[in-house]
Design the sequence.
């Protein structure tokens, strides 16, 4: 009898290919592998008019939703379902400015999986000292009950990190995104590297903020789970 | 396309509706007596299965064989329900997997009980249309997980209904409101029913109903209100009537019939307190009559913690939708429990806007299901519903950690792919454990099932198995697998943790014919006997308690009528039972009045007992 274990392709955890790499999907009659920008007929730019995106999403949703293909033959219904799933995934990703950047980076690197994921948590160099202190405080919190002073310190640290996270996201979706949209082909690698750096910092901050929330006995956002 | 009806399979009541071609409006199909609601109660009698009002009437008399609120057991295991099982008068069998009930001398699963309800609704619709009805849209709480949805679909199959779509209740309600152009913008639907609570945030724009987020508690509803009130009354009875209880060596808590009477009285009092500030409960027990006044404030103190439990999910739904209360344009109330004034107050406080309930909260879900049925049948093309999956879907990986494939509140249909390989040379089996929930560890999430992939033997790490999880428009998971390197499709065997296998469903469809619903004649005979039994119990109590209050002639007349009814009851002559029942009712009318007046004397001033109690 074989030992039944889940094997791991990446060696680090179950490899997640996510909804990003759409299956071969059918939009209209032609078989096309479209990226999320192409799904909506948009250029590969980060500046997106959300009202227009929503309008196009509703139009595509109406066209491809299984509700309107109930009497189609089974194989046609399977295709409709896949297309509908792709449209939904594309909208979910592009409407969120951070997820949009994350997706763009992946697309640019031609990665189908999260292997070599740029958003692997990485401490921001400027905050290394604080991070060290926070990790120490967290380790302490794990061993015993928190007294009032320790709680106050943790809460204070969390507020600082939340502000820092907001700054990082604003930078990512603001100046960095503008820079990408205006970059010449030669400038793109630099712009991409900046994205990866910012995404890694963001991932790190989210994990620590969640750790702090957990130590304080509050609800966490689930940043530890691989979304 | 064939006709599709819309069904609200509720915890307390169920309904069936359709869209009228002429008016293009959804309508509820009433029963032969014009009643729109079918109580979701199923009695397993020696003569067959009885559903609805007839079953409801014998709740207190045949508690062990009469199943109510079965929806709370759908897609659940014994461990999930064992706390609640203490309060249920029918037996729940311990065991692995899907919970089983022991009723009417056999074992049944919740989908089979639900199937009996669906069958009754199917027949109701068939009588209405004068033709077979085979397809239905059935609603479920938005927060139902995959197992609970699958159980609902299985119930449909057992009942001979093709469930063409499972729709979330709050979303269905929003469709009904939307059809009436009663809602546009950002809508919050607060749905507190008999057993389940849902809250959904939607954007309604240009005919598209886009669910942004949903949250809830599939074990919170009016049943819980009834229970806290009944338990409180039980304590009160123990204090006030300890003399009688001790004398007769009675432990009400261990008497299923008494507990059922108490529960029903508590439910009735709760309903009255939504319209009145105070009400009087009168429950005749063997040996004494319990009577007390209860105020709305007292009820509110008891149910406040339950109402408070709805606020957390409501806040989480808002947060997941990226909204604050200020963004909500309208709040819509759904479900009978939203009639409770405290619920309305708390909802208004939370959202900062007075909630709407123009459409009957008991009917709005069924009306919405009919609208969705009409959309699927091609009758409506300008409305589109975009729903979400309520819970994150993941796969257990090393260390019991959940890898989320599809996060909660993702618009459905949606799919995610995952690559797997083996860790041992020649391994031919890969075991995937799929879970649903928001916790980090698989053991804290809901186990949906195990998927066993069989592949060709290869060196460890060589196979590349692509597993695709698709959540369809019903919110139900489909898993497919493909081994990419060998190019062969991996065979996949699904072992649902809390579900029925194909063979189970097939067997249940068979059995549903063996244990068919009692035919109309038998059903009416059973009803007549039930009524006779009820009247006999009441007459017996009245005689013991009030013999000295009436003349000996009257006493003799009652005893004669009672004896005649006892004899008639066991015959198969329905008319004879009816006549004898009516005779006992007439004979005891005066005694009942005298008793009530004696019992209520002083406390209620000049109003007569029958006025307060609403008839004999």
Sequence:
């Amino acid at each position: 009898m074989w030992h039944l274990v889940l094997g791991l392709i990446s060696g680090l955890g179950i490899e997640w290919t996510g909804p990003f790499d759409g299956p071969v999907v059918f939009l209209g009659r032609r078989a096309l592998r479209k990226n999320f920008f192409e799904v909506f007929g948009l250029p590969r730019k980060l500046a997106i008019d959300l009202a227009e995106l929503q309008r196009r999403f509703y139009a595509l949703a109406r066209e491809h939703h299984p509700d309107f293909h109930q009497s189609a033959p089974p194989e046609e219904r399977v295709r409709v379902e896949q297309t509908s799933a792709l449209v939904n995934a594309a909208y979910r990703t592009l409407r969120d400015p951070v997820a949009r950047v994350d997706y763009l980076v992946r697309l640019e690197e031609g990665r189908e999986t999260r292997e070599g994921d740029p958003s692997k948590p990485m401490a921001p160099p400027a905050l290394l000292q604080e991070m060290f202190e926070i990790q120490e405080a967290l380790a302490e919190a794990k061993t015993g009950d928190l007294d009032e002073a320790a709680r106050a310190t943790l809460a204070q640290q969390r507020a600082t990190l939340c502000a820092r996270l907001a700054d990082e996201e604003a930078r990512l979706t603001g100046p960095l995104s503008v820079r990408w949209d205006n970059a010449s082909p030669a400038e793109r690698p630099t712009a991409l590297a900046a994205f990866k750096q910012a995404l890694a910092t963001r991932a790190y901050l989210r994990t620590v903020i969640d750790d702090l929330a957990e130590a304080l006995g509050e609800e966490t956002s689930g940043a530890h789970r691989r979304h | 396309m064939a006709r599709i009806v819309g069904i609200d399979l509720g915890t307390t009541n169920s309904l069936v509706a359709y869209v009228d071609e002429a008016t293009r409006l959804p309508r509820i199909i009433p029963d032969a007596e014009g009643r729109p609601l079918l109580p979701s109660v199923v009695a397993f009698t020696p003569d067959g299965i009885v559903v609805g009002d007839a079953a409801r009437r014998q709740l207190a008399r045949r508690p062990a064989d009469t199943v109510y609120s079965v929806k709370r057991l759908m897609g659940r295991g014994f461990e999930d329900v064992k706390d609640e099982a203490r309060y249920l008068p029918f037996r729940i069998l311990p065991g692995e997997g899907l919970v089983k009930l022991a009723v009417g001398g056999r074992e049944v699963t919740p989908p089979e009980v639900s199937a009996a309800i669906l069958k009754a609704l199917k027949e109701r619709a068939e009588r209405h249309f004068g033709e077979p009805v085979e397809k239905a849209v059935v609603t479920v709480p938005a927060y139902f997980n995959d197992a609970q949805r699958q159980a609902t679909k299985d119930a449909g199959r057992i009942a001979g209904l093709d469930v063409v779509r499972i729709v979330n209740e709050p979303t269905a309600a929003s469709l009904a409101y939307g059809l009436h152009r009663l809602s546009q913008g950002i809508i919050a639907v607060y749905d507190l029913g008999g057993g389940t609570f849902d809250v959904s945030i939607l954007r309604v724009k240009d005919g598209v109903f886009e669910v942004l987020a949903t949250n809830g508690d599939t074990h919170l509803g009016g049943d819980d209100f009834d229970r806290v009130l009944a338990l409180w009354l039980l304590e009160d009875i123990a204090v006030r009537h300890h003399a009688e209880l001790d004398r007769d060596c009675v432990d009400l808590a261990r008497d299923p019939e008494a507990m059922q009477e108490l529960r029903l009285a508590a439910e009735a009092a709760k309903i009255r307190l939504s319209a009145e500030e105070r009400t009087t409960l009168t429950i005749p027990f063997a040996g004494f009559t319990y009577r007390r006044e209860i105020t709305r404030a007292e009820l509110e103190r008891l149910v406040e913690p339950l109402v408070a439990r709805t606020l957390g999910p409501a806040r989480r739904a808002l947060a997941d939708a990226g909204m604050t209360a200020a963004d909500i344009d309208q709040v819509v109330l759904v479900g009978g429990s939203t009639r409770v004034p405290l619920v309305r107050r708390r909802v208004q406080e939370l959202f900062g806007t007075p909630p709407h309930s123009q459409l009957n909260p008991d009917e709005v879900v069924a009306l919405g299901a009919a609208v969705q049925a009409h959309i699927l049948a091609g009758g409506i093309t300008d409305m589109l519903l975009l729903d979400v999956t309520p819970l994150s879907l993941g796969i257990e990986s090393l260390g019991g950690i959940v890898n989320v494939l599809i996060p909660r509140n993702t618009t459905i249909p949606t799919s995610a792919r995952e690559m797997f390989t083996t860790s041992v040379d020649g391994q031919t089996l890969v075991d995937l454990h799929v879970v649903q929930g928001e916790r980090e560890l698989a053991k804290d999430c809901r186990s949906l099932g195990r998927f066993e992939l069989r592949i060709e033997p290869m060196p460890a790490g060589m196979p590349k198995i692509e597993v695709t999880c698709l959540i369809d428009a019903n919110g139900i998971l489909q898993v497919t697998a493909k081994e990419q390197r060998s190019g062969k499709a991996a065979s996949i065997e699904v072992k649902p943790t809390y579900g029925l296998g194909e063979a189970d469903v097939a067997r249940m469809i068979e059995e549903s014919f063996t244990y068919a619903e009692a035919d109309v004649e038998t059903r009416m005979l059973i009803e007549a006997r039930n009524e006779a039994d009820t009247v006999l119990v009441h007459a017996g109590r009245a005689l013991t308690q009030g013999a000295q209050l009436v003349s000996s002639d009257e006493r003799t007349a009652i005893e004669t009528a009672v004896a005649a009814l006892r004899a008639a009851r066991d015959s198969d002559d329905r008319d004879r039972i009816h006549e004898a029942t009516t005779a006992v009712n007439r004979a005891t009318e005066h005694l009942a009045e005298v008793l009530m007046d004696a019992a209520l004397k002083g406390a209620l001033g000049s109003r007569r007992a029958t006025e307060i109690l609403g008839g004999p």
